[in-house]
Amino acid sequence: MGAQIIDGKAFAAKVRSKVGEHVTSLKADHGITPGLAVVLVGEDPASQVYVRSKGKMTTEVGMKSVEHKLDVATSEADLLALIDALNNDDSIHGILVQLPLPGHLDEDLVINAISPAKDVDGFHISNVGLLGTGQKSMVPCTPLGCLMMLREHHGSLSGLDAVVIGRSNIVGKPMAQLLLGDSCTVTIAHSRTKDLQDVVRRADIVVAAVGRPEMVPGDWIKKGASVIDVGINRIERDGKNKLVGDVDFASCAEVAGAITPVPGGVGPMTIACLLANTVTACCRANGLAEPEGLTA
Ligand code: NDP
Question: Which CATH superfamily is domain 141-267 in?
Answer without folding.
Answer: NAD(P)-binding Rossmann-like Domain (3.40.50.720)
